[in-house]
Design goal:
Blueprint lengths: L1 H4 L11 H4 L3 H19 L7 E6 L3 H10 L5 E5 L2
Parallel strand pairs: 1-2
Amino acid sequence: KEARLRNLRVSYELMLAPMLHDLPKARQHQGEILEQCAQLIDEGRLSVHVAETFPLAQAAKAHRRLEKGSITGKLVLTLP
């Protein structure tokens, strides 16, 4: 209710589903989304706030941090 009052929209695009389910039109659509995002980032009109970075070995710790619900930004897992 509070989010609606503040005109907040929460959405996501599951990027793996079209590949797993062999959906070529959806794959193409996702490619277009990524191209638009890349252009906005290049233009400085879109940025991502990284709250914390964890090594992959600490994925469980990162997940617990998410479950607390107090994160502002993204959590990033880094590969060795």
